[in-house]
C-alpha cells in the first residue's frame, strides 16, 4: 500500500508543472514581500502537498537518518518520510 501511495505521489509531483499554472504573477508579488526571487517561492495546495513534493525530490538512500518534525504535522507526511528513509525511495 505504501509503495502505491509513494508511486502515485511521485507521478503527481512530476506532472505538477504541466497540470497547474506556475502562478508566476502570485509568486512575483510574494517574492517582493519576502525580498527574494520569484523562483524561490513555491505555491502548493496545502502542507501535505508541499511536503510530499519535497520528499519526492530528495535523493534518500536506504538507512538515511531522518528526524520528522515533532510538532503537529499531517500523519501521512510523517509516514511518507519514514517509508522514504527506510526504503531509500
Structure explained in plain terms:
This protein is mostly helical. 60% of the residues lie in helices and 0% in strands. The chain has helices spanning 2-19, 24-34, 47-57, 75-87. It is elongated, with a radius of gyration of 15 Å. It starts with a helix and ends with a helix.
Sequence of secondary-structure elements: HHHH
Q: Portion of residues in helices?
A: 55-70%
Determine the N-to-C terminus distance: 14 Å
Beta-sheet strand percentage?
Answer: under 5%
Number of strands: 0
Low-confidence stretches: none
Mean pLDDT: 74
Main β sheet profile: none
Q: How many helix segments? A: 4
Structural class: mainly alpha
Radius of gyration, in Å, reads: 15 Å
Tertiary shape: elongated
Short summary of the structure?
The chain is mainly α. The protein is built from four helices and no strands.
Keywords:
single chain, 89 residues, mainly alpha, elongated
Task: Please write out the topology.
Layout: H1 2-19, H2 24-34, H3 47-57, H4 75-87
Helix pairs in contact: 3-4
Amino acid at each position: 500500500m505504501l509503495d502505491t501511495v509513494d508511486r502515485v505521489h511521485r507521478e503527481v509531483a512530476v506532472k505538477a508543472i504541466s497540470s497547474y499554472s506556475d502562478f508566476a504573477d502570485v509568486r512575483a508579488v510574494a517574492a517582493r514581500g519576502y525580498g527574494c526571487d520569484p523562483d524561490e517561492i513555491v505555491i502548493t495546495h496545502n502542507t501535505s502537498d508541499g511536503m510530499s513534493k519535497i520528499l519526492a525530490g530528495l535523493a534518500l538512500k536506504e538507512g538515511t537518518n531522518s528526524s520528522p518534525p515533532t510538532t503537529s504535522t499531517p500523519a501521512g507526511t510523517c509516514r511518507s518520510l519514514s517509508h522514504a528513509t527506510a526504503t531509500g525511495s
